[in-house]
Specification:
By secondary structure, the chain is of the alpha+beta class. It is built from two helices and five strands, in the order βαββββα. Strands 1-3-4-5-2 form a five-stranded antiparallel beta sheet.
């Protein structure tokens, strides 16, 4: 059994500037519409959750994403900075549950929940 040194309420924050590679335009919208894609917003939310617990996991342990349930509330244009935050709200064995949110300078752009699972990296890689 893995002994986890994590506490409810732990938070992580991830900041990023919206670049062309993060935009929905390159993913099938008109050439003149450059806004943050939903998958890239979710990626920022996931990173915030990883950062919330990373320094508190035993050696050789990491987390992998298992559940994403979020709403993308509003578009963020190219060049703007977003901030994603994750807060650990439930621990069920090796299952970790987070609330997530993201915002830009004008307010909320997304919110929801995210589940992660604590793995032993060596075991995980051996099972691939």
């Amino acid at each position: 059994m893995i002994e986890l040194n994590i506490q409810l309420g732990m938070t992580g924050e991830y900041r990023m500037r919206v670049e062309e590679k993060h935009c929905a335009q390159r993913k099938y919208i008109r050439d003149d519409v450059w806004v943050l894609s939903t998958p890239d917003m979710i990626r920022a939310m996931e990173f915030s959750c990883i950062l919330a617990v990373l320094d508190h996991l035993p050696e050789g342990r990491r987390t992998v994403g298992t559940v994403v349930n979020v709403k993308h509330l509003r578009a963020t244009p190219l060049g703007e900075e977003i901030v994603a935050r994750g807060e650990l709200v439930k621990v069920d064995g090796r299952k970790l549950w987070f609330t997530v949110e993201a915002e830009d300078k004008d307010g909320p752009i997304g919110r929801g929940e995210h589940g992660r699972y604590v793995i032993d990296v060596d075991e995980f890689v051996a099972g691939l």
